[in-house]
Amino acid sequence: LSLARVLRRQGISVNVFEQAPALKDGGVGLTLWSNGLNALRLIDETIVPAILSNGKTVESFRFLNSAGELLGAVNLDHLNRLAGEPSLMILRSKLMAALSDGVQVHYNKRFVQYKYVDNAPGVAAYFEDGTCYEADILIGADGFNSPVLAQLGQHPQPVYAGYTCYRGSTT
After folding, report:
1. For residues 60 and 87, what is the distance between their CA atoms, to the nearest angstrom?
2. What pLDDT, on the 0 to 100 scale, is given for residue 56?
3. Strands 132-135 and 123-127, how do they pair?
4. pLDDT of amino acid 86
5. Whole-angstrom distance, CA of residue 52 vs CA of residue 56
6. Residues near 7 by Cβ (< 8 Å), separated by ≥ 6?
7. How far is CA 64 from CA 13, 46, 57, 69, 72, in A?
8. Which span out of 22-26, 65-69, 162-166 was modeled with the highest average pLDDT?
9. 21-35, pLDDT tens digit by residue?
10. What residues have CB less than 8 Å from 48, skipping those under 6 apart?
C-alpha cells in the first residue's frame, strides 16, 4: 500500500489486489518507529493525521526475563526528538486503513498466475474468480508462500534468528 501511494503521487495508475474479503478490524499491534513515521510523511503527508490519531505514543520500552526481572530499558525521548516524530503503537488494521485510503483496492482476489501479454509490453494477472487484469508491470508483494514468486521458481523460507517476541493489545 505504501508503494501504491508513492506510484500514485508520481502519476502512475495503480490497482492493488487483496485476497481477503476486506480489511480486518483489530488485529495485532505494531510499533511504528519515528523514522517510519517520517518515511510515511514523505510518501504522503495526508495520511499522517489518521495514523497519529489512531496510535499511542511510545515513550520507553522495558525488556524483562521470564521471571519478570528487568533486563534493560530504552527511553525513546531522544530518538523521537532527533527524528521530529513520535514512535507509536498502532493496530495493524488502523495503519492499513490509513494506507489504503484513496488507493484502489480490489478485495476477494486470490492470485492464480500471470502471463506476459502477446505483442505488448505488459503482463496479465489471473485470479481465482476468473477475472484478469492487464498492466505494464506486476509487483508481487504477497509475502512468504507467494504465488508470484512460486511462478518464478523461487520459494523463500523463513529462517529463525533465535528471537521470540510476545505481544498483545488491550483497549
Report:
1. 9
2. 93
3. antiparallel
4. 95
5. 8
6. 14
7. 47, 37, 21, 5, 7
8. 65-69
9. 988 776 688 899 999
10. 37, 40, 41
Q: How far apart are CA 70 and CA 168, in angstroms?
A: 19
Which alpha helices (H) appear in 30-152, and where do they start and end?
34-44, 48-54, 77-83, 92-100, 147-151
Q: Tell me whether strands 16-17 and 105-106 are parallel, antiparallel or unpaired.
A: parallel
* SS3 category, 124: strand
H-only helix segments in 45-91: 48-54, 77-83
Side chain identity at residue 115, one-letter code: K
Share of the chain above pLDDT 90, in %: 58
Rounded Cα distance between 164 and 126, Å, is: 38
The reported pTM is 0.80
As a whole number of angstroms, the distance between CA 133 and CA 114 comes to 9
Question: What pLDDT, in 10s, does the model give residues 98-122?
Answer: 999 989 999 999 999 999 988 878 9
Per-residue confidence (pLDDT) for residue 146, from 0 to 100 = 86
Whole-number Å distance between alpha carbons of 55 and 110 = 31
Alpha carbon distance 62, 69 (integer Å): 10
Cα separation, 24 vs 97, in Å, equals 9
